[in-house]
Specification:
The protein has 12 helices and 11 strands. The chain has a 6-stranded antiparallel sheet with strand order 1-3-4-11-6-9. With about 325 residues, the chain is of the alpha+beta class. Strand 3 and strand 4 form a beta hairpin. The chain has helices spanning about 15-25, 70-75, 130-140, 155-170, 175-200, 205-220, 230-235, 240-250, 255-270, 280-285, 295-305, 310-315; strands spanning about 1-5, 30-35, 40-50, 50-60, 60-65, 80-90, 90-95, 100, 105-110, 115-120, 125-130. Helix 3 (about 130-140) packs across helix 5 (about 175-200), helix 5 packs antiparallel against helix 6 (about 205-220) and helix 7 (about 230-235) crosses helix 8.
Length: about 325
């Protein structure tokens, strides 16, 4: 764990202003304020948990606002979501029309595109930067679950907290492949905790959403199966094809279109991944469920505007 930002050597009267300026320069174009007098102290430490970028932020009471338009204008990265583990203190988060309170042991998902955050006491949290697609592909648009607190008393929240606390202790004893798998399992546990929380929030209307979530998870796990189609998926979910089609349509999607989209996006990530550069495009196509390289190339060009080979060459390795 290394310190990347601190107020320790800044004169007391200038600390908060310079802290906000450094956050704007290095991370987000945010606005900061304080509603109380007294010294301000803050420290940001960076580390990783099984290849997942992470940080520990400790600071005295303050408020922050990130406005969506500014983030887009300055082209800040917004392809990830922040998973915040509250260690001590109390915070209030407002985002996407929702407001929630986080206390020690609670977990909350934050979208860096736009938010208002008030730290009401001396605070510390551990935060993970998780690829947006790894959560949204299971739960849909982040607007449905940001600012939704996973309470410390919730069984699934306790499991997530325990898993990541233990993972932080043992990660240096894991092989790179095992570490990557454990990180992926950790993200799956976060998704499961969110699904559990959403189900308790609105159990009746959410039932169909949970079926779709399970279906999407099944697609991800079986993306290489060339026989995977809507009837196959409906049978695996234990519902009729017509019912599954209705549930996908309620979310503005078609089952077959979703399957092909996930195959194409998976292929695109593999083509842009330096670790997969040695994989022949034909093999990559089959691994993503395409019946032939020509079929893959045609669909890929329709989706991304270039051939798989050109896409790989344009990727930044």
């Amino acid at each position: 764990m290394r310190t990347v930002l601190t107020t320790d050597e800044i004169p007391s009267r200038d600390r908060f202003g310079q802290w906000c300026e450094r956050l704007r320069e290095n991370y987000f174009p945010m606005e900061g304020s304080r509603d109380r007098d007294g010294p301000f102290e803050a420290r940001l430490e960076a580390f990783t948990i099984c290849n997942i970028p992470a940080g520990r932020l400790t600071q005295t009471p303050s408020q922050y606002k990130i406005r969506e338009g500014i983030v887009r204008k300055k082209n800040f990265r917004d392809d990830f979501l922040t998973v915040s583990f509250r260690k001590y203190g109390v915070s209030h988060l407002s985002q996407n029309g929702g407001t929630s309170i986080q206390r020690p042991g609670d977990i909350v998902i934050m979208d860096v595109r736009s938010l208002e955050l008030a730290l009401c006491e001396n605070n510390q949290n551990i935060h993970l930067s998780v690829p947006r697609h790894s959560i949204e592909k299971m739960l849909g648009n982040a607007k449905s679950f940001t600012a939704l607190t996973l309470e410390a008393a919730q069984a699934s929240t306790r499991l997530v907290n325990s898993f990541f606390a233990e993972l932080l202790l043992v990660q240096n004893r894991l092989s790179p492949d095992a570490a990557a798998r454990m990180g992926s399992i950790g993200i799956d546990l976060i998704v499961a905790g969110l699904a559990d929380r959403l189900a308790r929030e609105a159990p009746k209307p959410l039932h169909g959403t949970l079926v779709v979530q399970r279906a999407k998870a099944y697609i991800e796990a079986n993306i290489s199966d060339g026989t995977l189609d809507p009837p196959h998926l409906a049978a695996a979910m234990g519902v009729s094809l017509r019912r599954l089609q209705e549930l996908f349509h309620e979310q503005g999607r078609h089952i077959s279109a979703w399957i092909w989209e996930r195959r194409l996006e998976t292929a695109a990530r593999c083509l842009a991944d330096p670790k997969s550069r040695h994989v022949q495009i034909a093999n990559l196509a089959y691994d993503c469920g395409f019946s032939s390289q020509s079929h893959f190339s045609r669909r890929f060009k329709d989706r991304f505007g270039m051939t798989p080979r050109d896409y790989r060459e344009h990727a930044k390795f």
